[in-house]
């Protein structure tokens, strides 16, 4: 998430990822605890269970989620895009 999302966003945008919108699979807690890996590294390397992220207009999100679920995929809104100040990171976590 932290390396791929910035490649597709315009420089003036920031992706705000809301961590409580999904539950990472238990294996990530085990990896983190046994390896003493901090949160930022877990998100950088493993995406904490998010297999794919797509960025769509908010007005289309419900229709897209419904379609993905109809295809048997788990889909969640995990954040939003906002204006980014020059010195701010491109991806932040809440």
Tell me what you see in this structure.
With 94 residues, the chain is of the alpha+beta class. It contains four helices and three strands, in the order αβαααββ. The chain has helices at residues 5-8, 26-35, 39-46, 58-70, and strands spanning 13-17, 79-83, 91-93. It has a three-stranded mixed beta sheet with strand order 2-1-3, with no helix packed on it. The protein is flat and about 40 Å long.
Keywords:
3 strands; alpha+beta; three-stranded mixed β-sheet; single chain
Structural class, from helix and strand content? alpha+beta
Helix and strand element order: HEHHHEE
Q: Largest sheet, if any? A: 3 strands, mixed
What spatial order of strands do you see in the largest sheet? 2-1-3
What's the Cα radius of gyration? 14 Å
Report low-confidence residues grouped into runs of 5 or more.
none
The span between the termini is 14 Å
The total count of helices amounts to: 4
User: Could you give the count of β-strands?
Assistant: 3
- Overall pLDDT confidence: 92
Q: Helix amount, in percent?
A: 25-40%
Shape: flat
User: Approximately how much beta-strand content do the residues carry?
Assistant: 5-15%
What's this, in brief?
The protein has 94 residues and is of the alpha+beta class. It has helices at 5-8, 26-35, 39-46, 58-70; strands at 13-17, 79-83, 91-93.
């Amino acid at each position: 998430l932290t390396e791929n999302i910035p490649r597709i966003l315009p420089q003036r945008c920031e992706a705000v990822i809301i961590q409580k919108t999904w539950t990472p699979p238990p294996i990530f807690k085990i990896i983190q605890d046994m390896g003493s890996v901090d949160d930022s590294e877990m998100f950088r390397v493993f995406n904490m269970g998010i297999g794919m992220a797509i960025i769509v207009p908010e007005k289309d999100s419900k229709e897209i989620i419904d379609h993905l679920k109809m295809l048997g995929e788990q889909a969640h809104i995990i954040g939003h895009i906002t204006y980014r100040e020059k010195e701010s990171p491109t991806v932040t976590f809440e």
